[in-house]
User: Which sequence fits this backbone?
């Protein structure tokens, strides 16, 4: 009886250890950054945002889907791609991209703000 109990304990211990190691295994996540136009873009002009993804597996990068959202602007080109063009409608345009098809343990939303600008007021003629 003691032998059977010992074997059962060892078997349960081994099984638990094997499952806990399997559960701890996490997939590697990509390195992600967003770049924007290198200079100030005025309201009404187009600002460009690009997401840069670096990952060990090139095949995984090719399967990523890009879903962009913007604040203080309108996407005029590039939705669903790595680069969007945004017509600014406010002082600071913020772009957020969600990367679809990443492993569950990876962050999938990234945000970047463009360079802020204020339009200079029109000069007034003083008497």
Assistant:
């Amino acid at each position: 009886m003691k032998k059977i109990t010992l074997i059962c304990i060892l078997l349960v211990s081994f099984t638990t250890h094997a499952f806990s190691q399997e559960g701890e295994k996490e997939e590697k996540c990509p390195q992600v950054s967003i770049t924007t136009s290198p200079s100030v873009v005025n309201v009404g002009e187009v600002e460009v945002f690009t997401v840069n993804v670096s990952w060990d597996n090139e095949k995984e990068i090719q399967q990523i889907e890009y879903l962009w959202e913007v604040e203080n602007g309108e996407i005029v080109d590039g939705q669903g791609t790595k680069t969007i063009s945004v017509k600014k409608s406010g002082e600071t345009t913020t772009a957020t991209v969600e990367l679809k098809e990443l492993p569950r343990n990876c962050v999938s939303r990234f945000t970047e703000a463009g360079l802020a600008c204020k339009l200079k007021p029109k000069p007034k003629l003083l008497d």
Remarks:
- The longest strand covers residues 46-54.
